[in-house]
Amino acid sequence: MYVYLYDNFLSNKKFDAIIKSMEVCLTDYGIAGKILRLNNFIDVKPIIDDEIKRGATTIVIVGNDKTFGNVLSRSATCKVTFGFLPVGPDNTISDVLGIPINLESCDVLSRRLRERLDVGWVNNRYFVSQLHVYPSKIEVDYDEKFRVKSENELEIVVCNLQPFFWKTDKKDRNQVQVNPKDGKLEAFLRPAKKKKWFGKYVYEQASVFPFEEMIIRSDKAFEIEADGKKTKEKKIKIKLAPSRIDVIVGRERKF
Q1: pTM, 2 dp
Q2: In terms of domains, do 8 and 95 share one?
Q3: What letter would DSSP give residue 94?
Q4: Judging by DSSP bridges, how do beta strands 2-6 and 34-37 pair with one another?
Q5: What does the pLDDT look like over 102-149, one tens digit per residue?
Q6: Four-residue CA torsion sign, 203, 133, 65, 2
Q7: Which terminal residue of the chain has fewer beta carbons within 10 Å of its beta carbon, N or C?
Q8: How far apart are CA 35 and CA 58, in angstroms?
Q9: How many folded domains does the chain comprise?
């Protein structure tokens, strides 16, 4: 049995036509199911647990990168297969998973090609796409082997499913794709050279460090964002979670 979790932004009328087309397509494939609508105040894990008890075998996330991260960061331990129907803008994870945007994603879902993917763990919560440590004066320990200490601000992006993007000039758009099933996380470090007007930084070239466990600490609280959730911390431990998630992917996936 399929259960579809719709992000709240899909209630906007501009998405009515594509959502209706997708629902017709899913019915034609014989995989239509129960529809639940999300909002910012809903804890999805107990909802998914209840649907599993009622016989759900596939939970399908309908929305964008933020939707995907919000749902899976809270329900990564649920014993069920997850699907993804990316709709509209702000979708980079879909390309990694080999899932087209909008209507064509229904075809990928119907084929049920599955992979078991890594999950990140930070201070007793999960993240599946990306964790961002905003520029701060911090100290970093990697796998208890070596340490990096920043004299100036240092930015860190830990990637799992979501690619790492950066620009060296206005026309540049570099991208590094990581493997979400290699049993490691990848950290991208960018030391800040100086701070420009309006709070923007000039960075040095990013360095890449695969790792299994990382500890970041500072005397002052620094801001982090994991799958869209922002907090301030003085110390975080980042590592691979012991379990993986079962996700439906496309043939054109990037891993």
Answers
A1: 0.89
A2: yes
A3: H
A4: parallel
A5: 999 999 999 999 999 999 999 989 999 999 999 999 999 988 888 888
A6: positive
A7: N
A8: 12
A9: 2
